[in-house]
Amino acid sequence: MKHLFLIFLFLTLASCKEKTTSINNKEALVEERFRETYRPQYHFTPPTMWMNDPNGLIYHNGTYHLFYQHYPEDIVWGPMHWGHATSKDLVSWEHKPIALYPDELGLIFSGSAVMDTNNTSGLGTKDNPPMVAIFTYHLMEGEKAGRKDFQTQGIAYSLDEGETWKKYSGNPVIGNEGNIKDFRDPKVMWHDDTQKWVMSLVAGDHAKFYSSPNLKDWTLMSEFGKNIGAHGGVWECPDLFPLEVEGSDETKWVLIISINPGAPNGGSGTQYFIGDFDGTTFTTNQKEIKWLDYGTDNYAGVTFNGLPDTDRTFIGWMSNWNYARDTPTEAWRSAMTLSRKLTLHKNSSNGFYLKNYPVASIDEYSYDTVEHDTMKNGMSLSSKNYNEQRLDFKIPSNLDDFELNFSNVNKESLKLSYDSSKSQFILDRTDSGITDFETSFGEKPHIAPAIIDNKEDVDFTIIMDASSIEIFIDGGSTVFTDQIFPTTPFTALTFTSEDATIANLKVSKIKRIWK
Ligand code: FRU
Q1: Model's pTM, two decimal places?
Q2: Is 258 in contact with 270 (CB distance < 8 Å)?
Q3: CA triplet 236, 173, 196: central angle to 5 degrees?
Q4: Which of 69, 76, 153, 205 for a ligand 1 pocket mutation test, highest count of atoms within 8 Å of Cβ?
Q5: Cβ(312) – ligand 1 distance below 6 Å
Q6: Residue 53 appears among annotated catalytic residues
Q7: Is the peptide bond between 47 and the residue preceding it cis, with omega within 30 degrees of 0?
Q8: Residue 340 pairs with which residues in a beta bridge?
């Protein structure tokens, strides 16, 4: 008997040891996976495999939910699921189990999520109202058969804070009788004035607006955009919301539309319209095309539901359909932009325009900040790794021609410059490292018109994270978001300008979010 007990004790201890070793191994594996060369350390990336658009952004009960287009089997686009992650501060994210899987009605394309607080859908109860996801079903079989009605809209609901989901049995909630080939990406909001749900949806070259009392029965109200805005490609991922003009009590409506291809610097990009929405129709006097970002890697971005209107918070997919499938990463593909606050401004040179700038909580992640003396023509600084740092500075008095050059020991460089004769900023990644995985990636510099309040004391924030750079000029009036793949981190920073100087330069490291 005593022997038996000793054997049992030995086996139990051995199995415990095995378990701890395997937990340790798993932790080591996770740690290794999140230290991959190009893996951003404080931007959201999927644990493994493919990711594209952010979906169902919603803030509820103190938690931010990020769902995303996800193919868990490969690092290229495939049958779409909704991945899921949550955050308390919009910077650190916790990976959650996959929320939505494809079913017999199709793959789960992009869409949004709302809290149905009054249980208008009847999918929950008054005491436990449902979180409802509204998405596009994409039926591969229909597409392959050459039909045009393969995209329809469906809903699913969660009664446990987004942890688990059930599809609604009456799906699809919007069919495709019109045989519209590109008919997708529903963004739903509660319209308080008319007490109904409003959905923005895209249909090839325009947006359609629907309304519903209960998220299940939808009525087409109006259309927008056939002859206005950029039309170099198909319209995708609409987002309609009100926003107060800073420094006034005027409220306008913003309509964000992603477009692919047709962006100013090639491939996928995000345009927006400023106008009015009366509960039925969106109208605008805007003549010119407005772009949210002049880098090539901010696409399919939308804003959170569930936050006050003054807190319009945006996340975009940091890639471009031109080369999204080819970027040189192996275990995972694509990151999200930093969460950014959108604000609306108006001045005589730009009319209405949006600024987008990282949310304040990212400031809490800065550490080891070093303040530098004024930089003048020809001066250089060095650092162990600019690819994990944030730079804040200003160009005092008059903005004049300059070039800011990040370089590394392999003679790769990434340059931001200003051309006063054209009033343009230029971000040049053509020699920034690995660029040859696709022709357009390193083909030409990215150009942005200088959308700034005025040329005195212009603020710059530059944030690099392994394989991305985000540049915010004048608090986000002009923005570049670009992927970069240097073969070794940038370690030198050189400033060239006859007349301009860099003042108040602060260089900070940013804490990593993966544990
Ligand atoms: C935008 C997009 C959406 C679509 C999804 C599919 O990047 O093309 O229009 O719903 O990706 O993954």
Answers
A1: 0.95
A2: yes
A3: 80
A4: 69
A5: no
A6: yes
A7: no
A8: 314, 358
